[in-house]
Write a structure and sequence with these properties.
alpha/beta, four-stranded mixed sheet, 6 helices, 35% helix, flat
Length: 217
């Protein structure tokens, strides 16, 4: 099992390895398997990319992302510019019914509201605005109210786990009640836990996922 010093070193090495942000501007601390990211970047996409990179490191149990987004002053898009760009991006995205999503922007902080059928659509809407210039943060408050019937979701999720090369399906138990899914059991990494949750959200009709998975290193 890695100690915190080893984990910190591995996360820093992963940040330097990954493109999309300058690792020199990001600080890394580790305590009891939980990584804290700090520092400043010039775009929200860099903050999100750093978090995604840290999640994939073996031994990471959790992440506190305290990176601040310091938008450049010259040429920064206005809130109105960001709203228009976000609506345009969702209009061109085939997996987002843009007419059902409301975009609110205040000082670069984007809030998405509305009602969609699935977590897949909600995540896709978030991706549409994540990389827009001038975005300082994204709060995705879209509500999921599926129009499909709740049928055989437990089996669909378990089948998805078995198809996934990075998931040990036999160690994960799936409990379902209407649109609510609860995952329990053991996984080997934070990344595997996140992949299991993502796979569960991919099933039609899912309205919530409770992650009770334990990371057993």
């Amino acid at each position: 099992m890695k100690n915190d010093t080893q984990l910190q070193t591995d996360v820093m090495a992963e940040l330097k390895w990954r493109p999309g942000f300058d690792a020199a501007h990001i600080g890394v601390a580790a305590k009891d398997g939980v990584i804290t990211l700090s520092g400043q970047v010039t775009h929200y996409a860099e903050k999100a990319a750093a978090e995604d990179s840290a999640k994939g490191v073996y031994g990471v149990k959790g992440i506190a992302n305290d990176i601040e987004v310091d938008l450049p002053g010259v040429g920064t898009p206005t809130d109105q510019d960001i709203v228009e760009a976000a609506l345009s991006a969702m209009k061109w995205a085939t997996d987002v019914p843009a007419d059902k999503v409301k975009v609110v922007v205040k000082k670069g902080w984007v809030t998405l509201e509305g009602t969609l059928d699935s977590q897949y659509q909600k995540d896709a809407a978030g991706r549409c605005v994540r990389y827009l210039m001038g975005v300082a943060s994204v709060s995705n408050h879209i509500v999921i109210k599926p129009s499909v019937n709740w049928t055989d979701v437990k089996t669909k999720i378990e089948d998805a786990f078995r198809r996934h090369a990075d998931l040990e399906a036999r160690r994960i138990t799936v409990f379902t009640h209407e649109g609510e899914v609860t995952l329990s059991g053991n996984v080997s990494s934070y990344s595997e836990s996140a992949q299991a949750v993502a796979a569960a959200w991919g099933a039609p009709g899912v309205t919530s996922v409770s992650n009770n998975l334990v990371i057993a290193l």
